[in-house]
Amino acid sequence: MSKSNKKSNISNSGNNKKLTINSKDKVHKQESSLAASAAQASDTTMPSHQIKNSASPEYSALIWLDANLDESNEFYHDSLIKLRRIAKIIYTYNLMDKCVDFFSRTKHEKVFMIVSGTLGQEIVPRLHPVPRLAAVYIYCQNRLKHAQWSKKWMKVKGVYTDLTPIYESLKLDMRYYDRNSSEFNFAPTGDILNLKLNQLEPSFMYTRLLKEIILKLKLKLDEQYREDFAKYCREMKSEIFEMIDQPEPESEYLKTIAKFESEYIASNAVWWYSRHTFIYKLVNKILRNQTVRYIIKMSFFIRDLHEQIQLLYNKQCRGYKKEFTVYRGLVVSKNDLEKMNRSALIGFNGFLSTSRCIRIALNFTYGARMEAGETPILFTIEIDPSERMVPFADVERCSDFANEKEVLFSMHAVFRIVENEFDKNKKIQVVTLKPTSEDDPQLTALTNRIRVETQGESEQYQLGVLLIKLGEFRQAEEVFEALQEYVSNEAEKALLYFHLGNIKYNQTEYAEAIEFYKKTIDFYVRNPYVNEHNLASTYNNMGLIYDSKHEYQEAKCNYTKALEIYQRIKSETDPVFATCFNNIGTINYRLKKYSEALENFKKALDFGEANLPENHPHIAACCSNIGMVHECLKEYSQALSFYKRALEIAKRGLPSNHPSIELYEKNLDSLKKKNCK
Fold first, then answer.
1. Per the structure, how many domains does the chain have?
2. Domain match, 438 and 543 both
3. pLDDT digits over 99-116, tens only?
4. Cα–Cα distances in Å, from 105 out to 41, 108, 109, 150?
5. C-alpha pair distances (Å), 275 with each of 169, 256, 349
6. Same domain assignment for residues 303 and 391
7. What separation in angstroms does the CA of 631 have from each of 3, 624, 643, 659, 667?
8. Collapsed DSSP state (helix, strand, coil) of residue 12
9. pLDDT tens digits, 216-232
């Protein structure tokens, strides 16, 4: 925000000057600031067969290098057919130099290679250091001979005299690479200003709440969900192919959709997640990126998957007699590695796939492509079955990959880092984790507060309210617009219009916002006892509109109506009064009645500090507004102090990309420049 208009954009109690109340008497504050086909290659002696999809050039690929490969040979032809069911992009070579040249120019993220024993003995030492090379499978006639030299190369997964076990190993390894790409968040030790150890960074807090909402979201019957999802996948094929890391051929993609549509039931969600199809990739992608449209469409599957893991967890835990360890390989930035200090917390944003087999986990780390500043690590997760934690399950019996020895954690598992050391024997950084309790007191405290502020009359509204709190107004609008077809009565419509009005206000589309608010007020005036809370809230937000239009007396009139209703229905200590005083203070600020504005803002801050957590966004907003007044009064040292406090609180209580943080930073920078003059 430029210096010329900064003063007109005062934050409110929700960093928006805005309050919303739902029909369950819960306070919501809007948290933004206004303020594949075959092709031939010309560089090989024999054709290089490639099956690809045009969405991206950087998917995984398989190379088959053997001097005796013969395209006309029936065995070769049949083997390629089987390999194409596993790998979507395949290159075949019979000259080693051509194969080496491929690695110098390819853009594929990961390359898997089947190679004959004789050529393997020469090429493996040359290519082993190449980050793109993920795994090597030696196919030969003399297993004993080639097992000797190959055992010292970690990327060699095995020596085989039959292709059948190569198919199985390749399928497992490629799937493992695809599955092990989840993002994570940290809660570092010794955080500033009394931030407790068990308070994860804000984005993870909101992700935890998103999980709760997803698990409760149920708009239709299961068969309707399934049919809608299948239809959506057909319509959005191109977009989905771009989203996932390795799309399957269109024919296979459509077969998967048809099979899912006709055969899927809730009790086989784990089996579907474990299959080598686009479904598990899409689930992890949308959870990591919080892609709301897809989350709504797949909420039934995400819920079913979680519930099946929970059922297996409840059943299997009774059979565990002692602690055990599972493993997960990953490539991280060195900056992230430095964050992994002892006693820090780490949270994974999707479903977390681990293995009881350490070699499977190491497969990913030893073969992963690494950029500058990245390093491989091995997570060893020590599980005590007697402790309550996020549900996990040994899914070997219900998985499509029974040999993977997979232990699957439900989404958003949190772990404590107890050790972080380099293992000289394994030649890798090993990070030891312990699952945290699901009811960790500090973690629960902040999450509960956010839950109160985003709680709607029905679960489907909670997701939209959460997105508003995150400042994701476009996505929130998509949610509420999508929900219109499910709204059946006037009260529900009034609440829907109310939220859409809030969104339009945040998007500065004031005319549309007023129309939505007028529809809301019309219903509540005709039905005054249905929900006085929402009526007061709508008056408050109408005041915001008139405030933005510089119609200050009209704004004050609406704010006063809101305050009068709250005084009838709320206790004197209710934090809603913090918003009322904050907004009235805003009008006094606009009218340059700075003494009155300062009194209003301080009263709002007092209410907030007495009734809200110390890092609540309302407190940050009040501090920012008090700083604004001091700046106008040329009391720069006081202004600087309040601006700093606002920014520090916002960074602890809001996602890192929230617009309010940018507002506070600009206010602070502007004041510092002014102070230097």
1. 3
2. no
3. 988 887 776 767 899 999
4. 14, 9, 12, 26
5. 15, 10, 21
6. yes
7. 12, 10, 10, 21, 10
8. coil
9. 777 666 678 889 899 99
